[in-house]
Amino acid sequence: MKKSIAAFCAASLMMTGMAALMTTSASAQNAMSGATQAQSPIANPTGTIPNFDTKNIGPILNELGITWQAGALENGNPLIAANAGGELIFYMLPSACRGQGATQCAGLSISAIFEGNANPQTVNAFNNRYAFSSAGVDASGSAYIGRYEVADYGTARGNVASSLLNFLSQADKFRAELASAGRTVSLDGYADDLSASYLNRVGVTQMTGVDMRTENLIELHQQGFEEAANEIKKLISDKAAPRNKIDNDLKK
Fold it and tell me: What is the pTM of this model?
């Protein structure tokens, strides 16, 4: 049965990883008294994987409840085709492989592709706003969103799961914006529209005193993306903010 990506991500936080987290000993719980414990979408989130080989990524996908199938590209490099909740298809391409047979892969490209005649202005505005992922559109009008992960010296299992769930949330937001965008939307106007929901939340907090934040790490990161985008806009508009120089050979 299909479920929304938001529901899928929320459900992932309540799976076996959370159950394992709740088995923490009483002494450890006392030691962490007063501290906020983040929910973990998988078991052993601080355990590390040495690289992004399929044998290391597969178990994480299984724990998240993601359906996936391993394959290979024409050049022999590995490919993972996956489906989150029957709602979002995405691809994972392990890369920067240092071992024989495309193994010991230190990089991981995650991407989702959307059919249809995407509005380039919508894609550009989304891409300009969010630093977590990169969005684009090809000549045929198909839009895509992607992210690249690095694990040169290994990485925590929980970080892989969290990054993936945040990517799925961003991809779902991207799809919603593609579906609702008008063909004549202006780049500046659309970028402002993207921040409207975040600014509305800030306004509600200021008026009511109720903190709209959550202990859900996925939602916290999504809020962080919005905050970072708005703070960057403020820095750009601040003429006193230091800027890096660009050497233009044409001016010499």
Answer: 0.72
